[in-house]
Structure of 5'-nucleotidase:
Amino acid sequence: MVTTSLAFDLTILHTNDVHARFEQFNKYGSDCSEKEAGSGQCFGGVARRLTKLNEIRRSHSNVLLLDAGDQFMGTLWFIVYKGLAAAHFMKKTWI
């Protein structure tokens, strides 16, 4: 009997609870001021998320991205565009 073992690396990424937060925000969850942005005190936002996802996808093979949802409601983006903005950015995330 011959047994063969094959290694398989899988990188699993998980996102959720975006709540239509497409722009960066400060530690209080409010919009970042130019001063906060300039001093690196801002977090989140779709640009950061997409940059990190693409960085991981370039440096790892077999990347699986799972999203638990809760993309909608929470900011003016949802009030104005309903789910269209969330759908637009989600499509960019999955590409």
